[in-house]
Queue: 2 jobs
Job 1
Amino acid sequence: MNASGSGAKTEHGRFFEDFRLGETLVHATPRTVTAGDQALYIALTGTRFALHCADTFAQALGLPSAPVDDVLVFHMVFGKTVPDVSLNAVANLGYAGCVFGVPVYAGDTLSATSQVIGLKENSNRKTGVVTVRTTGLNQRGETVLDYIRWVMVNKRDPAAAPAPPETPDLPDSVAAADLRIPAGLTVAAYDTALAGSPHLWDDYAAGERIDHVDGITIEEAEHQMATRLYQNTAKVHFNQQAAAAGRFGRRIVYGGHVISLARALSFNGLGNGFRIAAINGGRHVAPCFAGDTVYAWSEVRDRIEVPGRTDVGALRLRTLAAKERPASGFPAAGDGGAQADPALILDLDYTVLMPRR
Amino acid sequence: MNASGSGAKTEHGRFFEDFRLGETLVHATPRTVTAGDQALYIALTGTRFALHCADTFAQALGLPSAPVDDVLVFHMVFGKTVPDVSLNAVANLGYAGCVFGVPVYAGDTLSATSQVIGLKENSNRKTGVVTVRTTGLNQRGETVLDYIRWVMVNKRDPAAAPAPPETPDLPDSVAAADLRIPAGLTVAAYDTALAGSPHLWDDYAAGERIDHVDGITIEEAEHQMATRLYQNTAKVHFNQQAAAAGRFGRRIVYGGHVISLARALSFNGLGNGFRIAAINGGRHVAPCFAGDTVYAWSEVRDRIEVPGRTDVGALRLRTLAAKERPASGFPAAGDGGAQADPALILDLDYTVLMPRR
Amino acid sequence: MNASGSGAKTEHGRFFEDFRLGETLVHATPRTVTAGDQALYIALTGTRFALHCADTFAQALGLPSAPVDDVLVFHMVFGKTVPDVSLNAVANLGYAGCVFGVPVYAGDTLSATSQVIGLKENSNRKTGVVTVRTTGLNQRGETVLDYIRWVMVNKRDPAAAPAPPETPDLPDSVAAADLRIPAGLTVAAYDTALAGSPHLWDDYAAGERIDHVDGITIEEAEHQMATRLYQNTAKVHFNQQAAAAGRFGRRIVYGGHVISLARALSFNGLGNGFRIAAINGGRHVAPCFAGDTVYAWSEVRDRIEVPGRTDVGALRLRTLAAKERPASGFPAAGDGGAQADPALILDLDYTVLMPRR
């Protein structure tokens, strides 16, 4: 108990030396996802995938109603982890092994825990890399999302003794056998006209490049509303007064909002990729700010057979988002040590489900 | 199948020569309208008509719950048509014969088709006028909206041979006999205090002018969120980078958003016009941009008896929206060849239902 | 009936001389509160109190589902009063005796009435102070909110004879016996990890100060959307064209939005204050504008035993919001005649419920 102190009751987030290998963090603020969240998600991103927009379309595929957008689920789970994992993060380094589990419907309540699976102090002793495996559950305890994320976190005290270094093995991708198809899903009645694209799984080939054509300009109010909707509390997105004194002089757009926009833009060319089944990896190549116009293009990395299904296949995609420049020239990701195109802001490797012919 | 091409999988919209007279376009992305959409609609427009705001008010009128706003239904249906009809439109020329059918409730799923009923190349051979009749349906196949719209669309190839010209007859207005009153609706328990206006049908007279007093300033985030909520994909609303190089140097506000604002403003003076039954015609007189402040005034064109009803009447209204100038001076629409007031942005002729004394 | 006049049908709001002592104003536009409103509220404020976010959390406390945010209920009721009470207000002077009644759930319909309990002309004869007691009801006629508010209102005609002056007695605070605990609420299963704070009622002490740390920058689109969601029609929030000619040259942020932000920020330090039971008093110390960054700090004024409950207590709090300056220095409220810190914008005295150890 504290009768006068400042800060005794407030949370300032964990620093590197506060994490313990193997500990499980129970994240606060379980969240009932509603039709209101899905409406806002459409308003903020313009997404048009029919499965998430229409109960009738979902029911024709054997589901009880339209599940909420997969990326919205990702953001809801991710947002919960921020106060415990990345409030003092310097950089969000990457994602791996992200599997989408059971679909989330309006009325489901999501909660999340994270297990610390890696800790490694950096040589400058000022920061360290924390790796967590986060699991999002619905109110029945079913997994809706499971992913690994690693972040660079400040130390409170550079002199603090580090934990023994532990760097977990990270999967390069989610294996086909680990992709989850929603229970009861069938595509016998899949309607490509209503879905908005005639191109099915069989029509794509590894190496194929798709320019998603459109550009979308981000406003401060939009990214702030999106990020608050997910109850993501990272300070850099909301406080212009503090940001003015910082490195960029401006609020930074939540990288996840760029993922949302890239996925929404990808509808034009990948409209039948009705569900994200996995995120194999991802990198926020550069920051994005209000006023930036975002474009995207995708490369088909692989066409994957889903074990036990001849009606639904998977496409492993690499979607790249650029800013202030159309993606028609397929701005390069800088593989193999080459320089990435300076317009690039996102490099996302993920897997979608698509009906087969 | 295409292993390398850009654009093979992406939609770039139909050009004038792609339309065939009589063909029916099945629009993508059916949409379950929810309480989330209605909440956003209120937040974006400030509309206050009691029927759309309160289940109790709707139930007192014999309806199962509050139907979503009529103009929101219009936008949802309209939005679906954009990728197929007007992605390459130069100008949205007009509307006619728009009838609102059964009310739309949260949980209903809307879909839309359009039949091409007119095609006429312009003399410059670079563009042509496409006229479509669009029908919006709910999940039971009941018509929620039916309207005619004509747009000027670019040709892909000026040298392409035009189809034989066909210009459909357009109704000057929706006839009283064609106005649909929601099944079961009764106004015996209509409460004018809760509705917010003491003025009923009998109190209005043809020629009467009403200044709706208030002004509302539009922000980029607002019109973008509204337009994305409707999944309207017209490029001019979202991409500042492209707009900067265009005619106006700025993103253009979706004309339908101006209709929404004008209808919301009209509450002050027409608060008992509880339902839009028809849009007889409409014209976006000039473009509107973020930062503009919108005002509106209305003229009562006609007081219409609804066949078979002595409790509910219809008012044919002409609502004009202006920008950057209050409507207290009733800025002129420029009828009979006169110059329209340069402040005008919308000239809408529509019919509302109102209780009679 | 008026065939040509401007303004005959439009409402311009009551002036001071239009109010009658003792009269009851029935406010228009009953409103069904939905999951859409709650989602927007989260997106606009970032609030994280678990009770309002998760049905599961609410059910563990004995409630049927997550009630909507208390401050959202306040805004919904308050908004309805604006067209009748404060459209011609010069200043919103204060609140008192605000008691929150039964919780509001998605699907409930709110309506409001106000009784005029005070009228006092100012010595300049141009304005007067109107005091009203407003009651918000749900569709079953249960009180959800009851509060006193007083505003300075313009006279239409300075020469108009004033009503006999009547200044009601205002309670300094809501008594412990008047605090309402939701029926059936139990905290036996209250989970502090999910709530996001380990600090319970017993851990706080009168005089304790808490800096809520974070700052949040307001955008025009955000405060406009929030204020329209509540159907608050005060002109100063929406019309930049008119504001440009006014005292500040800008739209003013609805003071209630600042209350929302301060409450949302207070989560960090007061996360278990799961319900606002009362607002004892409040003052908008200075106006707030888009672009301002808002911070907040709280002082615990009193730790209150709730009659008949040993499991739940109440904290009387004073939360102060400042702009453009972190609250870490606890900017002074200017008590006892001292000058208030110029950064202060809100001084709110309210009472929250919190589980006891």
Note: Residues 70-85 of chain A form the longest helix (16 residues).
Job 2
Amino acid sequence: MALIVQKYGGTSVGSIDRMRNVAARIKRTRDAGNQVVAVVSAMSGVTDGLIKMAKDLSGNPCERELDVLLATGEQQSIALVTMALRELGIDAVSITGRQAGIHTTGSHTRGRILNMDPTLMRGFLDEGKTLVVAGFQGITPDGMIHTLGRGGSDLTAIAVAASLKADVCQILTDVDGVYTCDPRVVKNARKLPEISYDEMLEMASSGSKVMQSRSVEFAKKFGVVFEVRSSLNDNPGTLVLEEHPNMENVVIRGVSIERSQARVTITGIPDEPGMSGRILGALGEAEINLDMIISNIAHDGFARHSFTMHSSDLGRAQAALKPLLAELSQSKIETEAGIAKLSVVGIGMRSHSGVAAKMFKALGDAGINIGMISTSEIKIAVTVEESRIEDAARAVHNAFKLDQAPV
Amino acid sequence: MALIVQKYGGTSVGSIDRMRNVAARIKRTRDAGNQVVAVVSAMSGVTDGLIKMAKDLSGNPCERELDVLLATGEQQSIALVTMALRELGIDAVSITGRQAGIHTTGSHTRGRILNMDPTLMRGFLDEGKTLVVAGFQGITPDGMIHTLGRGGSDLTAIAVAASLKADVCQILTDVDGVYTCDPRVVKNARKLPEISYDEMLEMASSGSKVMQSRSVEFAKKFGVVFEVRSSLNDNPGTLVLEEHPNMENVVIRGVSIERSQARVTITGIPDEPGMSGRILGALGEAEINLDMIISNIAHDGFARHSFTMHSSDLGRAQAALKPLLAELSQSKIETEAGIAKLSVVGIGMRSHSGVAAKMFKALGDAGINIGMISTSEIKIAVTVEESRIEDAARAVHNAFKLDQAPV
């Protein structure tokens, strides 16, 4: 008898009818001879409604209290899904984050999992019960309610699977797997049967928002093999696991795109120690997430730095840099919005050369200009004009024949 | 510095604006030099909405899961009221039932308080914080969420006051105290400055629905003096406390009425051991709450029993008695709806005679017929026709001069 952890998001449990569907799916998994631990999110809309009430009361609600408030959303879901299961004759029991033994650390509303104590869950499983666990929540070392921030329910599912040594962890969502590229952009994109943790991480940080990076990192750290699959059908999804030798036969696993990017370039920076730190520090204090960062020394002896960020951060970035630029008489700031990022990702890159050349040729043949370039061991990312990003994705996807399953 | 426990019901915290009013009131109490522990209910409507979702999923929702579901209502209130307090600059912190150390026993949805561990609350109070405690909830010995049933938040407030040895416990509600009679019926009814636990218990069981009996019993058991007062103004309310010698100067504390009563009389019952048990057993199994119970032996050698109950239970009572009556050929059932109950309550009755005579004379003078009569040490209750209950209340209220403060 296998132990299967299934994670259902807010849309999957978004109404009483949908909860019945979730219960039916859990029952099917159970009837097939498995034990099931379901991890559920708050009903879609509930969390937003609670945040709205908090914001009505306070411009800056106390984060400890936000955790107490928001944790009720998942608590309602576990009780209701458990009732739906019991209505189908399944001996189910709800489990809060505290009861699941999810011990956390870090600031309120942004908890990190410190360790897991699955004693209570294990006891219920030994009695043959089906468990419905609240995602997104845990407790601090002094017993306070703590939430895990965005994507927290995925993290709960991975952590529960790790602590119970589950055989399978299924992340059931509104996409039916990880694709070689966004199928809305590249019609012949192909669902990947498997992808390594590292590739998944690079895809996540490159705009493929199937899962948050930290859940994938947690799974990698604890060796939890998980599957991303649809909550709407029974098709196999994509397995995410540690890389194995066969995987390297594929040079490129996928192409990901990220729109609405902007570039800031600062020229004429004195070539002195500490200057980069001051610039990045000013942007960090303004809580601007930088993506690509490129620095070099120009032939005039001054340095220049370029960064990309989400275009909605551009105004705040300019404001944050203003005081520093006022000090540096030679410096100028140059900005460009309306760009997008294209990345190719694959662990096969480590042992294959010529990937960049092939990618750049494909873009050149399509008449698409490349802006910034940045690389990691298993990724090459470039910026292009946002108006050409879909053409760029199709050109690169074709060049690497990603529509064809590897032999 | 006094420690004051204040209980706010669902109507008092029924909207964001009302929560702000509650916070302002707590701040005033705090500014007057007191420490405050507020016990709050779920926002009015929230609990009903949750129950509706549960009933949509199941005709008979699992009670363990109902507890998990319903406890979220109070958890939301404590977080929001705490945010409102912090917005006023008060260093407040929310406390769930578990964190308040409310340990319970009994069935799910109908918990009883077993003991209290106020360690966490005490620690926060020592740091000078204001506490906002979730009413209506606690935890079972094995750490499961448990709710306390109807009136549970009053019970929480009394228990918190007992465990913290609070100086004052205020039950803030939509009435501004306990009256000699319902002021909507008797215009010159007078607010009582104080009432003994036992009188309050008899009033509660006689239709004065200010508080549930078990909260009063709990307060009596642990010697918690509490005050019933309005959440809408700062007028003093009614203190509920152990009787003291001065209280006995008043013969009758108040008059209470209960409408929509019905009577069932069974005649011709064989005078055999066990017959009363079988009759009461049949009604108990049908979960019918009996109020007055009168039995006697008629001169024909058969017994007759009369009971009163809420008139909405009459049909079920008749159905429940049918099998038994089919066995007893001499028995007949007679029912009467459209009656009401009038009670006079006062500990002074113990040392004063003639109370019943005065009461019956007042009713007779008003031309009101008395049906059943039942008495306890500090209460005399009678049934009258429901159409005459208000006249009856005014006649008795006048006869005992309850509109005048005792000298």
Note: Residues 255-399 of chain B form a domain with the VC0802-like fold (CATH 3.30.2130.10).
